[in-house]
Specification:
This protein is α+β, with helices and mostly antiparallel strands and about 160 residues long. It has three helices and nine strands. Strands 1, 4, 5, 6, 7 and 9 form a six-stranded mixed beta sheet that branches. Strands 3-2-8 form a three-stranded antiparallel beta sheet, with no helix packed on it.
Length: about 160
């Protein structure tokens, strides 16, 4: 994931200390019920699509923007799937972040899935019974997004 300019500005003052940041994940389905995934250029693994909202950007706008930037697919956000504070992560350069992830179910409305920036090596549509190896983060979000009548999931622990 490319680091947004506004975070670079914050890092100039904050150094590598923990930053609490919003994150948005988009679970995008097409009319055939397939899910859109990208194989990340930073680690080579398949993943759901996501990113960091710009200051003042609404989560649904961020989801739509990130999906198009990474995959050239146009989508609309349909509903919030889950909201979850993730565990802190330390990047190879020593920067530490903790994300509040807002996952949205989205529906593809146009475009052809292709690599559209330098964050992905591949992108594609996958049937639920033919998913590539995914981290539990993505698998859980896909399952939650598939449940039509499921209310928004919150960690109640």
């Amino acid at each position: 994931m490319a680091t947004p300019d506004f975070i670079r500005t914050i890092r100039a003052d904050a150094g590598q200390q923990l930053l609490w940041l919003p994150g948005v994940t988009a679970i995008v389905f097409d009319d055939e019920g397939r899910v859109l995934l990208g194989r990340r250029s930073d680690n080579g693994k398949w993943s759901v699509i996501g990113g960091i909202p710009d200051p003042g950007e609404q989560p649904a706008e961020c989801a739509v923007r990130e999906v198009f930037e990474e995959t050239a697919v146009h989508c609309v956000a349909e509903r919030v799937v889950l909201v979850e504070a993730l565990e802190p992560v330390t990047y190879p350069n020593g920067d530490t972040c903790q994300f509040m992830d807002i996952t949205l179910r989205c529906r593809a409305v146009g475009g052809e899935a292709r690599v559209n920036d330098d964050e992905s090596l591949e992108v594609g549509w996958f049937a639920m019974d033919a998913l590539p190896d995914l981290h539990e983060f993505g698998v859980f979000r896909i399952k939650q997004a598939m449940a039509e009548e499921q209310p928004t999931w919150f960690d109640r622990s």
